[in-house]
Every structure is written in C-alpha cells, then in structure tokens.
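Reviewers of the previous submission asked for a worked example of the structure-prediction workflow described in the proposal, so we include one complete record here. The input consisted solely of the amino acid sequence. No template or homolog information was supplied to the procedure at any stage.
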Amino acid sequence: MREDQLQVLERRGIIVPAYAEYIQEEWRDNPRLAMDAQPSLITVQNIGIPAYLANLVDPKVIRVLTTPMKAADIFSETKKGTWTTITTQFPVVESTGHVASYGDYSADGGVGSNYNWVPRQSYHFQTVTQYGDRETEMFGLAQINYVSDLNYSSALLIAKFQNLTYFYGVDIPNNFGALNDPSLIAPIVPATKVAGGTGWANALAIEIFNDIMALFVQLQTQLGGLIDRDTPMTLSLSPIVEPNMGRVTEYTLAPVRAAIKDNWKNLKIVTAPEYNTTAGELAQLIVDDVDGDKTAYCAFTEKMRAGRVVPYLSHFAQKKSAGTWGTVIRRPIAIASMLGL
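From that input alone, the workflow returned the following structure tokens.
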C-alpha cells in the first residue's frame, strides 16, 4: 500500500502498520520461483487439536430434584425404642364408674379404669454403599467427589423411604401410616360447586372456604365440642390444590387464606405431594393435641445407623440402616378428612 493511501486511512481513523517488503522487483513476475507452493499432505487433514482439549467440565454439580418430605412437618417426629425393639404396646385408659343416691350409711357407687393395649410393630430396612478404588479415582479426574455423593444418596434414600412409611406404613402387621391407618374415620365429600364437580380447580373462593368449614364442623362432631376456633390445628393438603386458596372474592379481594386466618388464628397449612392420591385430592384437618396429648406423631427406632466401612481387595462397602413404626395415631377422632378436592 502506498504512503499516500496510508495517510488517507490514518486521517479517517484507520491505522495500518507499516511493513517491509523483501522480495526483489525483478522476481515479482518470475513464475519459476513459486515461493508459495507446498507439496501435498502426508498426514490426515484435521481441525488442529483434539476436541476434548476445548471441553470444559463445570465444577458445580446439579442434583436432580426430589419431592419434599413433609410427614414430620405435619405430625412431628419421635424416637421410640432402639433397633433391638420389635414391638411396642400403647396403653389406652378409659375412666368408668357409677353414682348412687346418697345415704349416710350407703356405700353404693364406685369408679374404675378400663385399659386397652394397642400394638405396633417396627420395620427395619437397609441399603449398602460400595465404591471401588479405580472407580473413585476416575471420577476424581472429573473433579467429582464420588464417595461423598454416594453417602448423600444413601442418606436421601433412607429419609425418602422413612417419609413414605409415615404416610403409608409398611405391609406387615400393625404398621400403618397417616393416610391408611384403619382407625381413621372415613373422609367426607366436598360440596358440589357452581361450575360442576367437587374439586377446587374451578371453585369460587366462598366454596373453598365452605369446604374447610365443613371439615371443622366434622371435627366438632367427632370430638363433641372439645375444641374451638382457637385450638391449634394443621390443615394438610396437596401442593396442587393449595394455590386455589389464593382465590379472592369479587367484593373484598381478600384471599381464602385471609378468611381462614380470621376464623382459625392458630391453624397451620402444610402441603405434601402424598395428598394427591389415586382416589382423588385429599385434605386432612388435624387437631395438634387434645388434653395435652398429641393426636399423632411419626415414630422411628433409629433415624440412620451407619455401619463399619469394610475394606475389600480393591473396594470399600458400608451398610446404613433405619427403623420405622409408621405414624402412631393416638386419637383418630381428632382428624377429619375430605376426599375429592
């Protein structure tokens, strides 16, 4: 490029560095020189580098989400016994007696106590974590803490199964869950809605409120007036139907939740996926405790017991175990259910 052309470009803000030319003028048009020619390739044509060298492994590992474990949030959780405890007996006492007409010399009348023993059977379960020497080091090449991830998986697996037993129990004698205990009173049916059906999907705010009121009336009927609007209670239902409690009326624009808090100041709302059942959407209104005794609680013998890490020829293994009683329901009459939301 000529000097005058460089000056024009420079005035326009384009800077082109100067360069030196080493070829002699008489060689420019000599085709025999062919200084830019090269022979054909001996190696295979490629893109330049192995593809893996341009690959990045993100150090942040994203865990797959699992459904929340809410049984203990709804009913609380208690340790009963140890891993050597096989069965337990829950005593129930009922006061008895009769009165008689008074007389100075009469010894008529008397009181007594009647005892029942409700049995429960524990269920113990386990899982085993195994990892090899070479396997662990190969995952280390990808900056993955393989042993830590396996231990996380074992703890999660045990917790998930424990939560499942709290809702459904185990298929052994006298081990039940909060949704299938045979002592539970049959659920009531929601009212038919203006839009049709009994569900909350297209229900009006007042219709949803009336269904919750029906649950409270059912509790009052079952307990014979032992509770009132200020009694601490828990409303448990599916996360699929719970958002419908945000519906508002066209007059006050207040959501159903606000109306619930105005009427039952000590009511807590908890969602759990297990209330979305094969028979329909289920809700339970639970009195937290009656006369100082908890209505129900989830029970375990051992939350998690980790065994020894056993070394083998070229791998390690560790057993983890736990035990469950399911959910112990002390007062079934303090739970009202509604199916078909």
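The chain has a mean pLDDT of 89. We consider this example representative of the routine output the project will generate in years two and three.
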